[in-house]
Specification:
The protein is an alpha/beta fold. The chain folds into three domains: 213 residues, 3-Layer(aba) Sandwich (Rossmann fold); 91 residues, no CATH class; 38 residues, no CATH class. Helix content is 36%, strand content 19%. The chain has 13 helices and 14 strands. The strands form three sheets. It has a nine-stranded mixed β-sheet, sandwiched between helices. A three-stranded antiparallel β-sheet has the order 5-4-6. A two-stranded antiparallel sheet has the order 11-12. A hairpin with an 8-residue loop joins strand 4 and strand 5. Helix 8 runs parallel beside helix 10. The radius of gyration is 20 Å and the shape is globular. 47% of the residues are buried.
C-alpha cells in the first residue's frame, strides 16, 4: 500500500471525499486516512436522538454527534487526551448526563461563530485533523419514511418521522424523504465533491446515513457532475429494524430507486458476505442500475460485523489508483449494457447481460 504522501493530486495523496454518518463513516475515515492527508468527510445531520437530539431541539443547531465522530476519526492522535476528551460522555443524572464534551463544544462554537462549518474547522484545528469535516447541510434535517408491515394489511404503509424511529422500526422501510424537502447543500461539501479525485459512499445505516446524501439536490448534482472515481461500500450485514432481511442486492435496488440518475464506478462488497455463484450474479445485475462493476474483496474484521480499517484501506487504495477499466459494453452513451464482476482485487470474471 502506498503511504499518505503518494498518489494523484499532490505529494499528500489523492483528494478523497467520504459521505455517510455514524459508525459507518468512522470506519471509512479510519481507512482513508491511511491513504491520504487530503480527506473531506460529508456527514448527515438528521440525528434526533440522545445528546444530539437534545441539543438540536434546545439550541436549533445541527446535531453534532456524527460530526464529532468524524472529527475523532481524523484526529492527529486518535488515542490522545484531547481526542478522548472530545469523545468523553458525562455520566450521572444531572443536566449534562449523556452529553459528550465534543457535542457541547461544537454547539457552543456554532453559537459563538454563527456558522457550523467554522465551528467544525475550529475543532478540527484543535484536534490537528488531516482533512476537513463538513455537514451535508447547514440546517438540521428530519427523516420521514414510508413503512409497511405495521398495519394489519401488509400493503398499507405508515409514515414514520425521525431518524431514531426510522432506524428502529419493526416494519419494512419502503422510501425515505428529508424535511424540509429539497434542503440546501453545504456549499463547501458540494465543492469538495466536485473537486475530488475519489468519492466514497457508505457503509452505514442505509436509509438514515447513506441514502440521505442523495436527497439533498446540491449534493446529488455534485455527485452526478464530479469526475471523481466513485466507490460505494456495501454493509457487511443487514441492520435490524432499518434493513432487516435485506440482501446485498436489495441494498443496491433501494439506493437506485431513490436516485435514478446516480452512478458509481465500483461497488465494493465483502467477499465473505455474498457466496460465489448465483447470488453474486444478482448483485451484479443490481449494480447495473448504478452503471457499476462489482468488486468482491475481504474487507471485514474477522468474526465481527465491522470493516477492518487496514483491509478496507488496501481495497480502496487499489481501486482509487487503478485506471478506469475500458470494459466492452459497460457504458454506451451513459447507458448500461453489461457488467464486470471482479473477484477480490486480482482476476476478473465477466458477467454480461441485457
Amino acid at each position: 500500500m502506498n503511504g499518505p504522501d503518494t498518489g494523484p493530486g499532490t505529494r499528500h495523496g489523492p483528494e478523497v471525499v467520504a459521505l455517510g454518518g455514524g459508525h459507518g463513516l468512522y470506519a471509512t475515515l479510519s481507512a482513508v486516512r491511511r491513504l491520504t492527508r487530503r480527506v473531506s468527510a460529508v456527514v448527515t445531520v438528521a440525528d434526533d436522538g440522545g445528546s444530539s437530539g437534545r441539543l438540536r431541539r434546545e439550541l436549533g443547531v445541527p446535531p453534532p454527534g456524527d460530526l464529532r465522530m468524524a472529527l475523532a476519526a481524523l484526529a492527529a492522535d486518535a488515542d490522545g487526551v484531547l481526542t478522548r476528551t472530545v469523545q468523553h460522555r458525562f455520566g450521572g443524572t444531572g443536566a449534562l448526563a449523556g452529553h459528550s464534551v465534543g457535542n457541547l463544544l461544537l454547539a457552543g462554537l456554532t453559537e459563538v461563530l454563527g456558522d457550523p462549518v467554522a465551528a467544525l474547522d475550529k475543532v478540527g484545528e484543535l484536534l490537528g485533523i488531516s482533512g476537513r469535516v463538513l455537514p451535508m447541510s447547514t440546517l438540521p434535517l428530519d427523516i420521514e419514511a414510508d413503512v409497511s408491515g405495521l398495519e394489519t394489511d401488509p400493503r398499507v404503509s405508515r409514515c414514520i418521522r425521525g431518524q431514531v424511529a426510522v432506524a428502529t422500526t419493526p416494519g419494512k422501510v419502503r422510501r425515505v424523504r428529508l424535511l424540509p424537502a429539497d434542503p440546501p447543500a453545504c456549499a463547501e461539501a458540494a465543492a469538495a465533491i466536485e473537486g475530488a479525485d475519489a468519492v466514497v459512499l457508505g457503509p452505514g445505516s442505509w436509509f438514515t446515513s447513506v441514502i440521505p446524501h442523495l436527497l439533498v439536490p446540491g449534493l446529488r448534482d455534485a455527485l452526478v457532475r464530479t469526475r471523481a472515481r466513485k466507490v460505494l461500500i456495501l454493509n457487511l450485514v443487514a441492520q435490524p429494524g432499518e434493513t432487516a432481511g435485506f440482501s446485498a442486492e436489495r441494498h443496491l435496488h433501494v439506493l437506485s430507486q431513490h436516485a435514478p440518475d446516480f452512478a458509481v464506478d465500483e461497488v465494493l462488497v465483502d467477499s465473505g458476505c455474498v457466496p460465489e455463484g448465483r447470488e453474486r450474479e444478482h448483485v451484479a445485475r443490481a449494480a447495473g442500475q448504478l452503471r457499476a462493476r462489482v468488486v468482491f474483496s475481504d474487507v471485514a474484521d474477522a468474526g465481527t460485523a465491522r470493516h477492518d480499517a487496514g483491509k478496507l484501506a488496501a481495497a480502496l487504495d487499489q481501486l482509487i489508483r487503478e485506471p478506469r477499466p475500458a470494459v466492452p459494453g459497460l457504458r454506451v452513451e451513459g447507458r448500461h449494457m453489461g457488467q464486470d464482476v471482479r473477484s477480490g482485487l486480482g482476476g476478473k470474471e465477466h458477467f454480461s447481460w441485457r
